[in-house]
Amino acid sequence: MLDKKQVLDGLKKLREASAKRKFTQSIDLQISLKDTDVKKPENKLKEVVILPHGLGKKVSVAIFVDKELVEPASKVFDEVIKKDDFKLFKKKREIKNLVRKHNVFVAQANLMGEVAQSFGKFLGPKGRMPDPKAGGVIPPKKDLLKPIYDKMQRTVIVRVKDQPTIGVRVGVESMSDSELADNILAVYKVVVSKLPRHEEQVSEVYVKMTMSRSVRL
Known about the structure:
- By secondary structure, this protein is α/β, with parallel strands linked by helices.
- Helices cover 31% and strands 25% of the residues.
- It folds into two domains: 4-54 and 154-216, 2-Layer Sandwich (Ribulose 1,5 Bisphosphate Carboxylase/Oxygenase), CATH 3.30.190.20; 61-152, 3-Layer(aba) Sandwich (Rossmann fold), CATH 3.40.50.
- The protein has six helices and ten strands, in the order αβββαβαβαβαββαββ.
């Protein structure tokens, strides 16, 4: 099993090998799987992971709501899209701009049908449809809004779809190596626990920055 010392050693090598950039680079975890036929349903994977130290930068979260949640949601979320305003998004460009603006979308549960009809064609391909598994589909209760927003600041979704690989952001270079290692191990442990043959299916594990080469752990 991958341990924290291995991860810390890999992060040290990554920093040493990476040139300084004029922006804060993201840190990504890459897991390659072996002997994994992704056409078989048992090898598909979609898991929600709560990172112990968050992503190191703000996650922009928008919410689709009906009238009873408009006011309280406006105090919490980065953008509130009211049910009555769905019809205003008539042009593809307007919806694409909305999707680009935010990292995550949340929806009031009773609006999911209308959200899918009006925005699903654009949210779906980007992996940004409100996700019940991640807590992104909520009942109309205002006391849930702040906890859900805060949770989305620390949530990543790990997927195996068409290729036997996993790629997920685990933080940014300004975070400490210890924080990044905790986040990496949180993702790794969830992945290993959900694979049919657990760690036997893991071929290689890498970390990389946005503009760096990959470093093997």
